[in-house]
Design goal:
- 2 copies of one chain form a homodimer.
- Helices cover about 35% and strands about 20% of the residues of chain A.
- The longest helix of chain A has 17 residues.
- With about 475 residues, chain A is of the alpha+beta class.
- Chain A has 17 helices and 18 strands.
- The interface between A and B is large, with 84 and 84 residues.
Chain lengths: ~475, ~475
């Protein structure tokens, strides 16, 4: 880029958001160059714009399309696939100023929010109304806009579904500069192609959400958590469809392997009252959380789940008190940080049919052993989303291992990612393993939205022109 | 079309499916020319092909693309938007032979089905396993492929969502002749653009589903239905968020206006035990169905709902016995046929935020009165999906009325259709009322899938070249 063009771009972008809401060159802090993904080099974006309105976002995109500046959206940047890692020399659109809960609508049971709203803030805003937005990825500082970008899932998906099941409408800025509205305060719609659903999970590569209508559900007042150690992981997996099939509707159904359990109880100084004899023999734990409108029904359900799990081979069942349960769930939510602190080189979240989890995990461990690497994990037992911390310092060997693990997931009818997304971190694997006909179709869809190719080039697939990513 | 081309096409298509599975010219029965939509002229397709495999579907599409023959998919043809009305001279791909439930997977809680499977057949296949596919549009002879095409909703959507929330994966044939697989036996996925969701609701204009993986949920054994008459429709609407917000999780939440109630009780010879005094004063009825794993919890919930509804202004609450409840729900499901038998000229299903239902209905009735027309209705109170039977014999006046009613729905934050779709019947209104930027974007998406423009030209928007629809 010549410096004239740079100056021109700076002036043009500053005209849109105001000079005080534009950072350029050395003003751009290091933080804007990365998200939480391990093993991805941070980038040096040339500009950070902080729009205050949807119209400004649209105008930024129109300007970027005209000047051919690659654009990456940024919410809280807690992502784990480098989809919020910008492009060197590109523009970051940071939603830090667009962070308001605009309305909690208690009749239609929706909240209308700006994309920069954090999940913990939205949770606070809805709690007083007895309502909740149920998407709970581990990180509560994540933004709703980020949820939309990656189609975030989290622990409660087993009962409430993932982001795409909980977003009813969007206002979005197209790369061509138009603002559109999709869906609405309505759960049902058959009115042309579902652009809401297409934008969700597109990792900021098709359009940028500038307002999000999320579904709220009644916040049930009573909940309890049962922890069940099992001798074999297979038993955990076999128990899952039985628990769900009973109609008890658990809202959390997680497994934690023995190594991860040791790490998180140690890190969180969590005393769960599990005797050493059980701890030494248990290969995996199942965590089942139940909720109810009424305490007595909850108590009866906990009893029923505990009996069922014991029949299904649990070594014991511990009903955790509120504080231990909260700590365990929090520790599980922070498993990523535990893995990072333990020196994990990468963290992945393959999804497979839940019936295939034992075979997948056995194979992943074998592959790791052959590769002189280590994998330990925990994950969403209810939906087959396996989170693995990978220990292998050598990048080439790590790449070989990841490709082999992802291939195995695909072979078993799964996908590279259940909720973290592909982003930049996994696009090589995605392109290697995905059906070329689908990749071609996705590229044509990308082209339909973004003829100039400015929106987050380098996520999902290699940018069309190599110059658009440096 | 010259007769050489016709002969050539016939030979080519017969090569794909076998001569005995291809109808041409006069062999094509009248039934193949329409679906259940009122007021749409039937068409005369030139060919009906009955493929037996996904590969044959893909090959039919490749051939049609090459020969530029417009293609319309047909399941049970119970649709109400003429999306299954073919194009004169075109090809109907009828899924009547691809009608098997391939697997009921009790571990992953999915069924894998061919698109021609009817909902009542799928219901039977899953019942023995204590599981259910929860999409229940009125017509149980509808096919799963048809559900996918229109994103069908139905009465249970208030608890279980619509088709897009209950389809986890597809095998689909692209118009360019490739077969792709999307999603899988997995509820969570973040692996590129969600083609499953894009194909659902696209009315057979992007790709044709050749296999569908549907989500199954536990079939709860106990259910009960409460019928509550109200003096004012507004009271019905105000009661809805209170009932949902209580966490009682009704699986049906319908309203029926007094005229429709009179018609369906008369037609179904339904005796609900409502005294004349109530019947004469009630302006609308709310139907609430609850279900539970346990009979005693259900009884307590029914009690709680009845008390709540009485507090909220219900004139009385009738707990219907199993047989009356079944009849009422069936009669409600068949409201379309009742309206048709009563001489309705059209049936529409506008969706608005549920808070806006009273304003919408008042306005719709005013508009009808000004237009010397009549509207009566019932609908999904839980999700703002208002079904209206429209009485106006004059096509020009009817068109004016529909445009005015649809505009009003859009103004209130809703859409032309909640579950019937746009199809051919409502494309004029859709093009008049939808944001042109969105229409353009949808056209480009269509182009990305279907460069030859063969798939169901004339649904959603005018065909690109006028010759492609006669």
């Amino acid at each position: 880029m010549s410096s004239t063009i740079e100056t021109d771009a700076k002036v043009r972008l500053a005209e849109v958001v105001g000079a005080h809401n534009l950072l350029a060159g050395d003003e751009v802090g290091e933080d804007y160059g990365h998200d939480e993904t391990l093993q991805v080099e941070p980038a040096k974006p040339a500009y950070v714009a902080k729009p205050g309105t949807a119209e400004e976002v649209a105008e930024l995109l129109a300007t970027a399309s005209e000047l051919r500046i690659p654009v990456t959206a940024r919410g809280s940047a807690t992502g784990l696939s480098a989809a919020a890692r910008p492009v060197d020399g590109g523009l970051v659109i940071s939603f830090e100023r667009m962070n308001r809960v605009l309305e909690v609508d208690t009749v239609n049971h929706v909240a209308v929010v700006q994309p920069g709203v954090r999940l913990d803030e939205l949770d606070k805003a809805t709690a007083d109304h007895g309502l909740a937005y149920t998407v709970y990825p581990g990180e509560q500082s994540a933004s709703v806009g980020g949820n939309v970008g990656t189609n975030a899932g989290g622990m409660r998906a087993v009962k409430y579904g993932v982001t795409r099941h909980n977003v009813l409408g969007l206002q979005a800025a197209l790369p061509t500069g138009e603002l559109i509205r999709t869906g609405g305060r309505i759960a049902k719609i058959s009115n042309g192609y579902d652009l809401t659903q297409l934008i969700i999970g597109s990792e900021g590569s098709l359009a940028l959400a500038t307002e999000v209508i999320v579904k709220l559900v009644p916040r049930l007042p009573h909940s309890a958590t049962v922890l069940a150690p099992f001798r074999e992981f297979t038993e955990v997996v076999q128990a899952v469809p039985k628990v769900i099939g009973s109609g008890l509707a658990p809202h959390i159904l997680e497994y934690i392997d023995n190594l991860t359990m040791a790490a998180i109880t140690h890190t969180s100084q969590l005393e769960l009252g599990i005797p050493d004899s059980v701890r030494d023999t248990a290969q995996a734990y199942l965590v089942v959380a139940l909720e109810n409108r009424e305490q007595d029904r909850l108590d009866a359900d906990v009893q029923a789940v505990a009996e069922r799990l014991t029949e299904l081979g649990a070594m014991d069942c511990y009903v955790l008190d509120g504080s231990s349960a909260r700590k365990l769930i929090q520790a599980r939510e922070h498993a990523f940080w535990t893995a990072k602190a333990a020196g994990a080189h990468d963290v992945i979240d393959v999804v497979v049919p839940r019936s295939a989890m034992p075979e997948f995990l056995t194979k992943a461990r074998e592959l790791a052993m052959q590769n002189e690497s280590g994998v330990v994990g925990c994950g969403h037992a209810g939906d087959g989303n396996v989170h693995l911390a990978v220990f292998q310092a050598d990048p080439i060997k790590r790449q070989e291992l990841l490709l082999a693990i992802f291939s195995e997931g695909a072979r078993l009818g799964g996908a590279i990612s259940g909720e973290h997304g592909i982003g930049r971190a996994k696009r090589g694997y995605f392109q290697a393993l995905e059906d070329p006909a689908k990749i071609e179709l996705m590229r044509r869809i990308k082209q339909a939205f973004d003829p100039a190719g400015i929106l987050n080039p380098g996520v999902l697939f290699d940018p069309i022109s190599p110059e658009s990513e440096h």
